[in-house]
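Protein in question kept in full:
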Amino acid sequence: MWANSNVVLTPTIDGGGQERGLRSGTENVAGAIGFAQALYLVEKHRKTEVERLESLRDGLEQQLLTVFPDAVVSGAKKRRLSSHLHISFPGLDAERLIFRLESRGVLVATGSACAANKGTRSHVLTGIGLDPRVADGSLRLTLGKLTDENAIQRAAAIMIEEITSEYERIGR
């Protein structure tokens, strides 16, 4: 652990005085080695995993934009996380859409995990100037290690059906 010498820290575990008296107890050598190995493996495969996720994300994005050209994707492509797609469907209620998608096994969110279930429009989306109609129709999709092309195709098909149905419901 690194700390500025001017910072006074309170010990988390009292005892034998290890770790400069801040965390007593025997060091978890196996845990440290395991963590180092995990970091090694992540770094070893990071470039190919980023490329794989970007390809999946971009494919899903393209399918949705082809059917819904008015959809708004947040962020410049090169500056977005490879594992995230934030897309807005103007005029739709994203909360309602989430329930429809979830009932069919497609799990999405309206925002960050820390802002979930607040029931309010994202201050971040309004802060970057998104129209309220766009912000209210925003979905966040997260891809991961287990996401594959089949999952993307299935999610895209279900999303297209449900979003189309929602637009029809509101007369658009």
Q: What stands out?
A: The CA atoms of residues 15 and 65 lie 59 Å apart. The helical segments are 29-67, 94-102, 123-127, 132-135, 149-169.
